[in-house]
Amino acid sequence: MATIENNLQAVKKRIASACAGAGRSADEVLLVAVTKTFPPEAVREAARAGQRDFGENYVQEALTKIESLADSRLVWHFIGPIQSNKTRAIAEAFQWAHSVDREKVAVRLSEARPAHLPALQVCIEVNVSGEQTKSGVAPEALPALARTVHALPRLRLRGLMAIPEPTADLELARRRFRLVRELRDELNRSGLALDTLSMGMSADLEAAIAEGATMVRVGTAIFGARKAA
Known about the structure:
Layout: H1 2-21, E1 30-34, H2 40-48, E2 53-56, H3 59-68, E3 75-78, H4 87-93, E4 96-100, H5 103-112, E5 120-125, H6 142-151, E6 155-161, H7 170-189, E7 196-198, H8 205-210, E8 215-218, H9 220-223
Parallel strand pairs: 1-2, 1-8, 2-3, 3-4, 4-5, 5-6, 6-7
Helix pairs in contact: 1-2, 4-5
């Protein structure tokens, strides 16, 4: 398990180096450790090494970890596709939902968020690669959805999330991340105050940071090859 601590430090160095190259402070980028398919003990080891924010893709798996690690005061981010029948569990157990991509899901999250909890922090997922099989709202439909989500009670719209199609073409990766930033900036010019760009993973976090990412979601580089779900 010492490898997890070493890997965390290596990822943080990558983030710091990418930020320096972009003329940014490393404090501007939050590392979300993605723990899907990894056991609670892996999460606990990362927490002992100072990691506080964790991302999960599968609700039932996440709930088990959240319960078993309730004493650790961690921040949980839901980053997978959101099914309508899972919105209550997400609204009750998570602090962040990165992958809102339609009005129905946003409304259900809003209605299910317990009144005694702070507002659920929300990002809208944008499909910037145009992949038919990938979740996310199309860029042209984003403004209307953003206005809807922004108006809902018990939610706080923080920004945008994207998972572009993997590519070895660095310039293409940067263009796609740049589009996310430009979409966020357009929303801000229309009167919203969004501060979050959740983009970049193990293989492409440098490109994402160069284009303004404020959160990177990293699993493999910290925990190793993913186990079968």
